UniProtKB/TrEMBL annotation:
Pfam families found in the cross-reference section: Hydrolase_3
GO cellular component, one term: cytosol
Name listed for the protein in its UniProt record: Cof-type HAD-IIB family hydrolase
GO molecular function, one term: phosphatase activity
Organism of provenance: Holdemanella biformis
Keyword Lipoprotein: no
InterPro entries: Cof (IPR000150), HAD-like_sf (IPR036412), HAD-SF_hydro_IIB (IPR006379), HAD_sf (IPR023214)
Keywords annotated in UniProt: Hydrolase
Length: 272
C-alpha cells in the first residue's frame, strides 16, 4: 500500500534548536524511494522555508497553515488577508503595544518589538542560526502597506492571549504559536476557515491522489484538523495535549526520533 504522508515542520521535523534529526531525513527520503508521497504541511510562510529544510526533498508543500499550496514549483492556491484587515490588525497591535510579524511569500516583516524579542529568544535556542534568521526579517511600522500577507504572529503573555483571542477570534483563526519553544509567549492569526486539512485535499485532488491512504504527523493545535481528517493521525510525543487527544496514536518526541519511529511502525521504510 502506498501512502500520502503530511509532515509538519516545527516540533515534528525540526527540534527546538531548529535542527533536523538525521533519522528524519533518512525516513523521508527512503519513504519516497519506496513509492510513498511525502508532503510538507506547515504553518510557516514560503520565506521561512530555508534551503536546509527544502533540501530534504518533498513531493509538494503546503505553507501558511493551508493558505499557500505549491506542487512542482507551481502555485495551486494562494489566499491572503484582506488589506483593510491587515491595517486594522496593525492598528490594534500598535494601540495595545503588541509586537507583530507579517508572514508573506516575498518576505518576513516585523515591528521593532517582535524583532528585538526574537533576537533574544533565538540566540539561546539556535545560536548558530539566529543571526541569519533574524537578519532576513524586514523591520516595518504601521506607515507601510504590506501586501499579500498569508499569516501573522504576535507577542503575548499568558494573560493577554485570552484578551487578544476574545477581541479577534470572531473574524480570524487565533491559536498559540506552533513553534514549541515560544508557544506560551506568542500567538498566530490566520484566515478564518482555512486550515491544513482542506489544503491537503486540494493538493491530493490536483495530483490525482484522492483515493490514496493518508498519514499526518504533527505536534501543534494548527495540525488538529488535518490529524483528524487523515486515515492515520500521529502526534509527536512533544505535541500539545489537544494535539495528542485528537490523534490515533502518539510517537516519540522529536529529539528521540519520533518521526523515524512512526515511519518504521507503519512499514513505510526499513530500519537503518
Amino acid at each position: 500500500m502506498k501512502y500520502a504522508i503530511f509532515v509538519d515542520v516545527d516540533g515534528t521535523l525540526l527540534d527546538n534548536k531548529q535542527q533536523i534529526p538525521e533519522s528524519a531525513v533518512y525516513a523521508i527520503q527512503n519513504a519516497r524511494k519506496n513509492g510513498h508521497y511525502v508532503f510538507l504541511n506547515t504553518g510557516r510562510c514560503k520565506a521561512e522555508l530555508f534551503e536546509s529544510i527544502l533540501d530534504v526533498g518533498f513531493d509538494g508543500i503546503i505553507y501558511s497553515s493551508g493558505g499557500y499550496i505549491e506542487y512542482e514549483g507551481q502555485c495551486i492556491r494562494h489566499l491572503t488577508f484582506d488589506e483593510n484587515d491587515i491595517q486594522s490588525l496593525i492598528q490594534y497591535f500598535e494601540k495595545n503595544k503588541i509586537g507583530y510579524y507579517l508572514e508573506c511569500n516575498h518576505g518576513m516583516y516585523v515591528d521593532t518589538l517582535y524583532q528585538d524579542w526574537m533576537q533574544e529568544v533565538f540566540k539561546d535556542f539556535m545560536p548558530e542560526g539566529a543571526e541569519e534568521y533574524t537578519n532576513s526579517m524586514i523591520v516595518v511600522d504601521g506607515s507601510q502597506q504590506i501586501y499579500e500577507v498569508n499569516k501573522i504572529s504576535f507577542l503575548c503573555t499568558l494573560n493577554n492571549f485570552d484578551q487578544i483571542y476574545t477581541d479577534l477570534h470572531e473574524h480570524f483563526n487565533i491559536i498559540k504559536n506552533t513553534i514549541p519553544m515560544i508557544r506560551e509567549v506568542s500567538g498566530e492569526i490566520s484566515i478564518k476557515g482555512i486550515h491544513k486539512a482542506d489544503a491537503a485535499d486540494i493538493l491530493l485532488k490536483h495530483i490525482g491522489l484522492e483515493d490514496v491512504s493518508t498519514i499526518a504527523i504533527g505536534d501543534s493545535d494548527n495540525d488538529i484538523e488535518l490529524l483528524q481528517h487523515v486515515d492515520i493521525g500521529i502526534s509527536m510525543g512533544n505535541g500539545t495535549e489537544k494535539c495528542k487527544a485528537a490523534c490515533d496514536e502518539i510517537t516519540d518526541d522529536v529529539e528521540h526520533d519520533g518521526l523515524y519511529k512512526s515511519f518504521i511502525k507503519h512499514h513505510l521504510i526499513e530500519s537503518r
